[in-house]
Specification:
about 0% helix, 6-stranded antiparallel barrel, single chain, mainly beta, about 100 residues
Amino acid sequence: MTLVDKSRFVPTPVFRARRKRVVVRVRVEGAPGESQDAMVRDISAAGMSAVARVAPPAANDLVTIALPDGSTLWGIVRWVEGKAFGVEFDKGSHAAAPSGLIEG
């Protein structure tokens, strides 16, 4: 068996969707009756990073995002840090959204 030199290993890059830096207010709806404004910091076809006005949704919560143009997206909250949180969009969710915010 041949030994391989680990220093020559080049990992395959993990490509992330192109992010668009924005500052836009959206409406975040979680559990029935739970809805609040949030400011989006960046958004891509795969997800968004935002800051909640009051308290962010919890990690693993399903949320619906109402964009300023009237379109909606939905996804799952993947991380929460203070009032900041990140949402991974459902892959089919943004296909129907005509928003100019999302590329790709």
